[in-house]
Amino acid sequence: MNAFTDHTDAGFSLLNTIAAAVLDAQGTVLWWSRAAAELLDRPAAEVCGHPVGHLLAEESACRSKAAGNAMPTAGRALLRHRSGGKVEVAFRTLPMEVPSHLLVLAAPTRRVTDWEQGAALLRALLAQDRIGIGIYDADLRSVRTNITPDRDDDPALSPGGRPAQVTSAPDAETAETVLRQVLATGVPLVEQEQPMRSPRARERQRCVSLSAVRLEDTQGHPVGVAALSTDATERQRVRRHLELSHQASVSIGRSLDVQRTAQDLVDVLVPALGDLAWVNLAEAVLNGDEPPKFRGGGELHLRRAAVASATGPWPAAMLQPGATVPHIMDWPGLRTLQSGEAFILPDRASAIATYENTPDLIPLFIPERGHSVALAPLAARGLMLGTVAVWRTERTEPFADEDADLLAEIASRAALSVDTARRYTREHRAAVALQQRLLPRAGTDTPAAETAGLYLPAGGGADISGDWFDVIPLPSLRTALVVGDVVGHGLPATATMGRLRTAVQTLADLELEPEELLTHLDDLVQRLAGESAPEHQDAFGATCLYAVYDPIARHCTLASAGHPPPVLVRPDGTVRSLDISPGPPLGVGGMPFETITLDLVPDSVLALYTNALIDRGRHDLDGGLRLLTDRLAALCRPARPLAEVGRRLLADAADPPPRDDIALLLARTRAIPPEHTASWEFPANPTIVADARGATVRQLAAWGLDDLTFTTELIVSELVTNAIRYAGGPVGLRLIRDQVLICEVTDPSNTQPRLRRARWTDEGGRGLFLVAQLTTRWGSRYSQSGKTIWAEQPLPAGSTTAQLT
Fold it and tell me: pTM for the whole thing?
């Protein structure tokens, strides 16, 4: 009833816009409609009984009636309005049952033109098949439409039908909802994409671009909706493919980790392209090496590198992440992948057929509800790195050739990222191996100190640089502590670090003073910079801190080349950074290095570190140094191992990962008890050689080292005799016992002693040769007041420091 009422009202509204008049044979107006009265503002009483010609604004076909001509059946005329204006109308005359009477119907020309154009537009739209037209009443029942069965035998929309007649219930409900919104609000709907599935074949999903406008009568009341639809399935597919391709280019390759890159690939593909995906990579690729070249089936040495599932956890029955891919039989699809081409298996049966000879592998490679799969190779630079597979389990439509082409494109880009990550893994592994070979043992235990060295690469292990630490045992139980930082990153910085560490060890063996050692090292860095390419010379440099600790004197001498100051933790828990005046970084040249010497009580802890430990990207070195001293005060306890303290410090520095690598060296000092040393001073007189031998024999007897008396007497005799003969006095003699027996002779000369082989006719020249034969090692060092020649002997078997004590 409502629909009928709406149509009736619409018809009356239409009739009310058409003026009507009845004329007799002479053209006299017999009847004048209300619409005619409103059109010219002339009531029926004024017009009826008068010739119609009086209403014309100009001579027209109607006036010719007075001349005896017949009234035209249709035409246009200008009528006079009561206000004096003119109204152009289109008219049509119709004969009536009463003889000689005519019915004249007229409407404003503009409105007639609109009706004609609207009718022509509607006819044109309904006649074509590219745009679906549906005109619905206020109950969304079809009034007129051009929607007919398509090539797949979808149903047609019949008059009075609803959208559910041509699409599945959920999609029809969505369409009706948006059309009712247009009907209620009057706001047009413009190109809204709607899924449309046939009620006869729900797996056939299309996308329709829907536009709709509200239809209103002349009074502005809504009477229905006009809907226009176009097939946007291909456009949607192209757009989705473009979006997926863009997302792949943005998301894949952000990491230099092979496995992370593979995971990024499957995360992009699921759920955008399929419901489940995996990546298999060659085991060699995961290790950073080039994959072996295979053709056909067999043991392909692949490993499941990454998986993704849109429906929940990865299925337990399928091959799990990290598992080795089992032996695979040869089949044409495998050869296709190995030749670098992607392909699809459109149904489950064709997928199962590939494992007809190995049915036990079906649960590992075919998901329970999988019905279509697309596969593509991961190949780059002529290397077959692995494969990627995407399954559809929930989506009803199978993969198409376009999907395989898209997967091949994405896989090709991803393969380049995987190969880049593989090569980085190989280079990083080489750099780490080189760094580990160049750095010393993590911990040492010497009579001078217990040490723990730790290294933290930049970026959580992603970058290797030139930071290093070193602990160098020196003669007379002394120990050198070194920490340094080379400018730059990567293998060049690591190689430079190795050269500098070797140079420091060589210079340390010469027993140079710290400031003198840094001066020689500065010259070396300048020379290395001069040998490098011109564009790299400005970036060549390093900082270094060199310290020598003497456990007998219990003092430490330090010098710095542009390096952060060390931190001292005393046994009582007090902590302070050492006030050291740093010289310029290595490679600057032209400026001296200064030293400081401080006394250290036993169990003091020295913390030497590189700049990144206190910087951490905040550019507040003072604040970072305060934080380090606070952490050392909290962590350094006499009973706590230094390695544990260092790990705790670096754990704090690793979150977030530092932008530069960190080297940390912790040293807990020890002291040689006074009773383990004995020293004398003699004048430059040949007669005192016997006194020196006698003092040595008595001291060895007191230490219970009688077995070393003979050789030690000879060593002391030769060294003291040479000092008196070539250097003068006074002559100092010192014996030190620990794990070895050390004999030192000091004289005021700076002349370098030389070891030579004497001829049989020579009366002398055999002293140092004899010393070298009787000791495990010997050497000399210089000071501002002369030199010291030292020699070491192993203790007799069974003799230890504890027994001597």
Answer: 0.61
CA separation, residue 586 to residues 420, 518, 678 (Å): 35, 8, 40
Strands (E) across 102-145 are located at: 102-108, 132-137, 142-145
Where b means 16+ CB within 10 Å and e means fewer, 646-660 reads bbebbeebeeeebeb
Element (H, E) at 544: strand 542-550
- Helices 709-726 and 767-774: crossing angle in degrees, nearest 10, is 150
Pairing of strands 740-747, 777-783: unpaired
pLDDT given at position 243 = 85
Model confidence at 655, pLDDT cuts 50, 70, 90, reads: confident
Range in 297-301, 447-451, 466-470 with the lowest mean pLDDT: 297-301
Is residue 754 classed exposed, middle or buried when 0-12, 13-18 and 19+ CB atoms within 10 A define those classes? exposed
Query: How crowded is residue 356: how many other Cβ atoms within 10 Å of its Cβ?
Result: 10
* Whole-number Å distance between alpha carbons of 259 and 76: 82
Structure tokens that stand for 383 in this block: 């290397």
Token pair recorded at residue 325 = 């891919």
Task: State the Cα–Cα distance between residues 655 and 639, nearest whole angstrom.
Answer: 27
Is residue 417 over pLDDT 90? Answer: yes
- Distance (Å, rounded) from C-alpha 54 to C-alpha 372? 83
DSSP result, 350-367? HHHHTTTT-GGGHHHHS-
What span, in angstroms and rounded, lies between the C-alpha atoms of 581 and 565? 9
Give the Cα separation of 626 and 133 in Å (integer).
77
**pLDDT at res. 782:** 85
pLDDT higher than threshold 90 for residue 300 = no
Own/partner contacts of 773-776, CB < 8 Å, gap of 24 or more, are 774/711, 774/714, 774/715, 775/715, 776/740
Both tokens of 547, joined, read: 């310290």
Q: Which DSSP symbol is given to 247?
A: H
Peptide bond into 271 cis (omega under 30): yes
- Across the range 290-306, mean pLDDT stands at 87
Q: Any bridge partners for residue 527, and if so which?
A: none
At residue 797, does pLDDT exceed 80? Answer: no
DSSP 50: S
Q: Are 206 and 233 in contact (CB under 8 A)?
A: yes
Span 727-734, average pLDDT? 90
Task: Find, among 313, 277, 248, 263, the residue nearest to 392 by Cα.
Answer: 277
| Token pair belonging to 227 | 């809907």
Report whether pLDDT(571) > 70: yes
Question: In terms of C-beta density within 10 A (0-12 exposed, 13-18 middle, 19 or more buried), how is residue 736 classed?
Answer: buried
Separation between Cα atoms, residue 395 and residue 375, nearest integer Å: 17
Residues 6+ apart with CB under 8 A from 317: 363, 364, 368
User: Which ranges of 278-400 does DSSP label H, i.e. alpha helix?
Assistant: 283-286, 332-338, 348-353, 362-365
pLDDT on residue 391? 96
**Spatial distance between the Cα atoms of 208 and 154, rounded to a whole number of angstroms:** 15
On the 0-12 / 13-18 / 19+ scale of CB atoms within 10 A, 316 is: exposed
Binned at pLDDT 50, 70 and 90, residue 484 comes out as very high
Q: What is the sign, positive or negative, of the torsion defined by CA atoms of 507, 508, 509, 512? A: positive
| Per-residue pLDDT at 660 | 80
Tokens at 480, concatenated: 């050198």
Task: Please write the tens of the pLDDT for every residue from 192-247.
Answer: 777 776 665 555 667 788 888 888 877 788 888 888 887 777 777 777 888 888 88
Query: Which residue, among 393, 387, 286, has the nearest Cα to 334 in the 3D structure?
Result: 387
CA distance 20 to 74: 14
Strands annotated E in 580-654: 595-599, 605-609
Residue 332, preceding peptide bond in cis (omega within 30° of 0): no
The residue whose two tokens read 């169990």 is: 603
Q: What is the pLDDT of residues 112-169, one digit of tens each?
A: 877 777 777 777 777 777 777 888 888 888 888 877 655 444 556 667 777 766 676 6
